[in-house]
Amino acid sequence: MHKYLLALTVVAFSLPEVATAQQLPALTAQDYARAERFMGYNTQALVDRSMGRPNWLANDRFWYRVMTAQGSEFMLVDPARKTRTPAFDHAKLAAGLSAASGQPYEAARLPFRSFTFSPDEEVISFTTGGKSWNYDVMSGQVTPNTTPAAKASPNAENEIESPNGQLAAYIQDHNLWVRDTKTDQKTQLTTDGAKDYGYATDNAGWTHSDKPVLRWSPDSRKIATFRQDQRNVSDMYLVTTNIGKPTLKAWKYPLPGDKDIATIERVIVEVNPAKVVRLQIPADAHRGSLSDDISSSGTFDDVDWSPDGSQLAFVSTSRDHKQEKIRVADAATGAVREVFEENVATQYESGQGAINWRYLPKSKEIIWYSERDNWGQLYLYDATSGKVKQQITKGDFVVTQLLKVDEAKRQLYFLANGREPGNPYFTHLYRVGLDGKKLTLLTPEAGNHQVTLSPSGKYFIDAYSQPDKPGASVLRAADGKLLLPLEKTDISRLTSTGWKAPTPITVKNQDGQIDLYGLMFTPTTLDPAKKYPIINYIYPGPQGGGVGNWSFSAARSDHQALAELGFVVVVIEGSCNPLRSKSYHDACYGNMAENTLSDQVTGMRQLAQKYPYIDLERAGIWGHSGGGYATAAAMFRYPDFFKVGISESGNHENRNYEDDWAERYIGLLKTNPDGTTNYDNQANATFAKSLKGKLMLAHGLMDDNVPPYNTFLVVEALTKANKSYDLVVFPNAAHGYGSYSPYMTRRRWDYFVQHLAGAQPPHDYEMKPKADPRN
């Protein structure tokens, strides 16, 4: 009787929910399929004449592959002759390969993406279907390549070749070795390496590999590296999910406030005969001037050999990134000379995407990067006295990358943002004298310029565009003179499908003094008379921004695809972005929980005033990693504004994230007399009780960048506060979810459709990424 009444009660309370669900407007699988057409794996295949990577030959000549409506072409460029021609006869090669292989091939659909010229350039070699072939440029014949392929070392991916190509350095049993690339003879260079105290070992906590971190001297006789001491560093643990006993993954991963972090004892290793020269300084913190690793650029950062290998200039970065010391070591004795140091109140960085200091031993000078006048600029120092000779660049703009120093002409070439009118995130190339005179703009077209210097530096390839305007690629001389048009991007096939570009937007920050820039994505079927929920995609940095690359792109994440489901999607670059002034970048220093959220809310309100079809009562937000941290913070700190949030892989508790990132941007962990710390109000779990809207959390359980415990702390806090939330976990996925990314995209769409748009998503729609058929 009691069971019967209970059952009736459950049914009675369930009926209204069923009725409500039935009354929801429904999106179909066809709606999702239409939206999926705007994903990058569908749109990029409709972009033509976009230049591929240059492959350099002798005398600054190069070839590249370009995608066409029919397939692709290989083009050959000779800068001296100002010619651009097919790299070979595509039709002849296709016919020859068809005859030789018995398989039909078309000129525009050749089955390879790369090839190699013979030294005399009369034969090209390529591989397809696991077989190697030679094509005779004159005869047009294709024959099997019978030359035995050089036997690759099984450890090749973890080796670093010397400049002359004769030796390859690698790690074995915590020691540094070299292998003769011709004879395969192996030589041990160090002998006292031990577990957690080895040579050239690569571990920044959040990234780790078996490849050595080192820098060969130009003459291939010496190696600059270090012995990394992480013996007392704490471990991080992850556990696999599988049938049977799980596997414990453990590695050294220091946290903010830890007494012991990884340190490096700098050494120079002579190769023949083997000898270790230890630099005569205390161990340095495992820090780099560019970011939170000493190999961010792919090699040993912050070291610069003299051309003859007799001296090694290097920079030592303090644990909190507030002090930089530039030093010069005698490679033979290990004696170290202090040249100068720079101290900053917040954190120092040496550029954006590249380290911008250089040692010029011939003139006994150092080019140094500093933001001391509130903008990232270059300075010239006397390497003997350590005194500033002069400021090289000056103005309200930021130097991002120093590309080339021409010591003979006393000139340098650099990329910078914000000097030209308009969008400050557009990059241009400049040349200036070391005396600071004759600053020259070399890329005058409006837009974002991506520059590739030729090996000699006499020429450069300039690819420029804007987020809403496809661009072109041209060849220029070093003085900026236009030599040859290369490609002009054609999006006619893309636009014929109904695709449209995002709208560049400009809004004011909270105090109305600073322009904020971003992009807005609206449905291609936009009806201005209707109201649309707004979704904010956020990645606050502070090491980057949500827009990322400001060049043209046929798709940015799933922003346009999501908009097609009936949303307005916005990306706003708030304060704390590094590509503007130092004060702009430092706006979040010591308070990373700000996450530019005040800028986002202010900007969205201004957009709603300008575009009445935006419904601010239905505001959502999502982000990944730092954006995941910001999303949860937005839901907790602005609970009446943001109604739905999706937080992916967020570093919600920076005391549980690797030591360097937080200590760089928040400062060293300090405990107050009352037991509180300067990190307490940075933690999302602290504010979880304020949640009012719908929140989905997601994390990969094998995330070795942001360990999943960051999300679990928020889960625990929400549970204790009796707050409802949704959780998606990927048992064996890392930080980016890998093959599970399409599933996460679909779940994100479903969540916004159901909880922000108030509609019913299709059941278990399957996203189907695919390769560009031209490849």
Automatic annotation (TrEMBL):
A Pfam family hit: DPPIV_N
Signal peptide from the UniProt entry: 1-21
SUPFAM superfamilies per record: alpha/beta-Hydrolases (SSF53474), DPP6 N-terminal domain-like (SSF82171)
The Peptidase S9 prolyl oligopeptidase catalytic domain, residue ranges: 557-757
GO molecular function: serine-type peptidase activity
A GO biological process held by the record: proteolysis
Keywords from the named record: Signal
UniProt domain Dipeptidylpeptidase IV N-terminal: residue ranges: 129-470
PANTHER family: BLR1971 PROTEIN, PROTEASE FAMILY S9B,C DIPEPTIDYL-PEPTIDASE IV-RELATED
Protein name: Peptidase S9
Species annotation: Hymenobacter glacialis
Lineage: Bacteria, Pseudomonadati, Bacteroidota, Cytophagia, Cytophagales
